[in-house]
Amino acid sequence: MTLKLRGIEACVFDAYGTLFDVNSAARAAQNSLGEKWQPLAELWRSKQLQYTWLRGLSGHHADFWQVTGDALDFALSTLHLDDPPLRARLMNLYLTLDAYPEVPDTLKRLKAAGMKLAILSNGTPAMLAAAAASAGIGELFDEILSVEEVKVYKPHPSVYGLACKRLRVAPPAVCFVSSNGWDAYSAKAFGFHTLWCNRFNQAPERIPETPDAQITTLAEVPDIVILQK
């Protein structure tokens, strides 16, 4: 039997890795990167997340565009790729990441059912607006929320609080969806209902608390949060 979450008024989505495929930038540059495209994509992403956590802990905030560039510089240096035009191309590609195939239909089903919809992301407002517009999904969201409003990255509780403030809903009325386990677990600890979109069969995290459910694709979300009348 499919899990049913009752009393959900808003579905809030993480952006990178959840709505948008973070590997698609490097994949699109395969003609320049060759067999190094996947190692670069993986290192770029892991270092990007590390830098958000390190900056949050140290109190030295920089926006996600800078963090993304710094992480790319580290990855390029590690793989011995000294190519400024390639760097510029990869950064531009990050503004037009591919959305996962099920994203548009999932959002349209939720919107048709009367759900409030939002993105809640580390990305800057400009980065998120560009990605959403490129994917043709920008108009489906009531809010596109960036950590730049609070100047600290996830998983700080003040980030999750943005969704409640801007959507005017209490935490138990929010279903938060993320493909990043640490994000889904942390949002649950904040008080949201959460779904972990575990696309790549990762092991469970060992942090508080446990998401309401694991899913493998966002297409499962509507059946969980939309109650039949």
| CATH second-level architecture of the largest domain | 3-Layer(aba) Sandwich
Low-confidence stretches: none
Number of domains: 2
Beta-strand percentage range: 5-15%
Q: Can you tell me about this structure?
A:
- The protein has 229 residues and is of the alpha/beta class.
- The chain folds into two domains: 10-21 and 98-225, HAD superfamily/HAD-like (Rossmann fold), CATH 3.40.50; 24-96, Putative phosphatase, domain 2 (DNA polymerase, domain 1, Orthogonal Bundle).
- The protein has helices spanning 24-28, 30-33, 37-58, 64-78, 84-93, 103-112, 125-135, 157-167, 181-190, 221-225, and strands spanning 10-13, 116-121, 143-146, 174-178, 193-197, 213-215.
- A six-stranded parallel beta sheet has the order 3-2-1-4-5-6, sandwiched between helices.
- Strand 2, helix 7 and strand 3 (143-146) form a beta-alpha-beta unit.
- The longest helix is centred in the N-terminal third of the chain and has 22 residues, at 37-58.
- The chain is globular and about 55 Å long.
